[in-house]
Amino acid sequence: MIICERCGKNPAAVHMTNFINGQKTELHLCSKCAGEEGGLTLFESPFIPMSVKDLLSQMVGEKAHPQARCSRCGMTLERFREEGRLGCSNCYKDLKNELMPILRSVQGKLQHTGAQPKVLKKAGELLDLKKQLEEAIQAEEYERAAKLRDMIRQKEQKEESTKGRD
Amino acid sequence: MPVWLYEAGPESDIVVSSRVRLARNLSGELFPSLLDKKGADGVLDKVKKTVFSKKADFELKDFSLLSPIEKAALAEKRLCSVELAESGIGALIVSRDETISIMVNEEDHLRIQCLLPGQQLQAVLAKAGEMDKMLGEKLGFAYDDRLGYLTSCPTNVGTGLRASLMMHLPALELAGQMPGIVHTVGQMGQTVRGLYGEGSSANGCLYQLSNQVTLGVSEEDILNSLDATARSVMEKERALSSSLHRQRGLVLEDKLWRSLGIAKSARVLDTAEFMSLWSDIKWGASLGIFKNIDLAVLHNLMMEIQPATLQLAAGKPLEAQDRDAYRAEVVRRAIEQIINK
Fold this sequence. Notes:
Strand content of chain A: 5-15%
Strand order of the largest sheet of chain B: 2-3-4-5-1-8-10-9
Strand content of chain B: 15-25%
Order of helices and strands of chain A: EEHHHHHHH
Helix content of chain B: 40-55%
Structural class of chain A: mainly alpha
Shape of chain B: globular
Oligomer: heterodimer
Radius of gyration of chain A: 22 Å
Largest sheet of chain B: 8 strands, antiparallel
């Protein structure tokens, strides 16, 4: 049990994380002291996932590769477990083996059945690839750029051929 | 004018507010945790252009121009998180009636939120969904056929939807039944959390019921099952409350009347004491012991007495002691307004 950091007596009931000038601070308070702490309000806690970080750090997939790294943003499994945040949408592809077990235990099912973005889904993917291509060229990663260029071509051709069907 | 000031909404004897939040990211951009100021401003520009080209009744809150108290007051109104206000790259776009707010560059590029009084889950989703559609069509969101909307944290992937109800459950809390309810609800892929710690009178008997799972369930199913849980919790609360009133009427009424008396007369009130008085007054109103209580005023009072909002109203920073005195004054005025109606 965590004891209130202010009075040192009661069990802490409110856990706040603050980012001030990029510096993360954590504060654990009992409800009495929390009320006296100026910046703290009744409404902060509900939407902060409860210790997701701790949860994530306990979960490692069997196929997880410790050296796995997102080719786009450089996110690693280690860093993700530390911060609890991914770096970009491509992390879901490149760190798939590492993330799937986490998704399975957090979410249960692994197939999205909710709403889909209607209009710009395909265009969005294309935009994403083009942006990645730009980045790859800038970073002089020509092998990756070539792959991306092929993918973009493929998609554009596919889109051309399906035009007029719907 | 904020909708809170004149409306308490359906089922407002128990449900104080309904809220949904949709997590979205722009496809092709790094997630906010890796964005520098320039990248973040780029995202904000796109969002601003889209919103302001279509909607006139929205405004941008520029955190770099706001005082710490003004920022904290926005968080107290639940329009944004404290993290966003302090992040240095975050921004907030809010509708004038304060029902819709868009946090930009928080954990995800966009957190589209809608908040309405009472049980109005369908309505809040519809409103947030409209904004989501408008922004999505223009900006293009990161989306995967299998995993749905891609979010910075895997706990939000799929629908990106977190829906919640703020509920006042004094009878269940008094009878010590909340731990059982927390446990049962947990088995439904949902959570109930004390808004202000659990098992102490300082929490105002307020609980937040929300969905936990976001992938593999549709938005409609998430809302339906939350609604079903809320109904069964409300039924239990109402049954227990009226049975307590029948069996221990005098004791209960004495407790609630005393709280109203203190709220009417106190010269110093800290937040914790206020919350327990507030809870009793609300309970008394729900049981019909206090007649003609305007629930919109009562619910709004809870926001007005928060530290930063209080200081904004006072027009100057107040030390804790002065805040408690000013809080008591605000509460006395509100109670008088409620009673004399």
